[in-house]
Amino acid sequence: MQYTYNTAISLLSEFLGFPEKQIIDLCKNGDKLYNETWKKMSPQNEEQRNSFYSMDAQIFGQIQWHFKTREGFKRRQNLSNLLSGKVLDYGCGIATQDIWAAQNNNVDIDLYDLPGKTKNFVSFVISRLELRNIRYIDSITSDRTYNIVVCTDVLEHLEDPCLALQDIKDSLKSTGTLLYRAPTDEKNPSLSHIQNGKNPEDWIKK
Fold it and tell me: What are phi and psi of 173, to 5 degrees?
């Protein structure tokens, strides 16, 4: 079973116990739901932000973005094609590119992200697709190193991006590659982009 939009909708419907039509509507309105939830919670610190990210609001928006927008789909597809060997996705979200790679590439993938609905959903998807070469890890340790570390659309959400990058640096093999994206220069950034206006290259250099 290939992981397509229809597969994602069907599995999310099964996971949440909602009719597929309701899931489709929630995904279509995912960005609006995401922003409305952020405004309602108005998180002021890392603990509150992590609580927000543990909710299901971002699942809907990410499914719509990854599968139903030209830019989002192409970006995830290109990223998936780059993955090989031992891979860590740091802050994987719904892990679309990782699931595609696990289905089609010679890879072994570790996922690292906050606990919550998104992580539970991705674990459910991995189980239902019977993938054996992808799983979550609970911590980043120095005895586990990777050919590739992925960190896309994560750093701009963090209070201390340099701390995350230190974990990533320690996880890369000496010949390893970091694939990252941190949109901090958008004219209309997401409300959750707390590092907007910063230069990610400054974090990388530290």
Answer: -65, 160
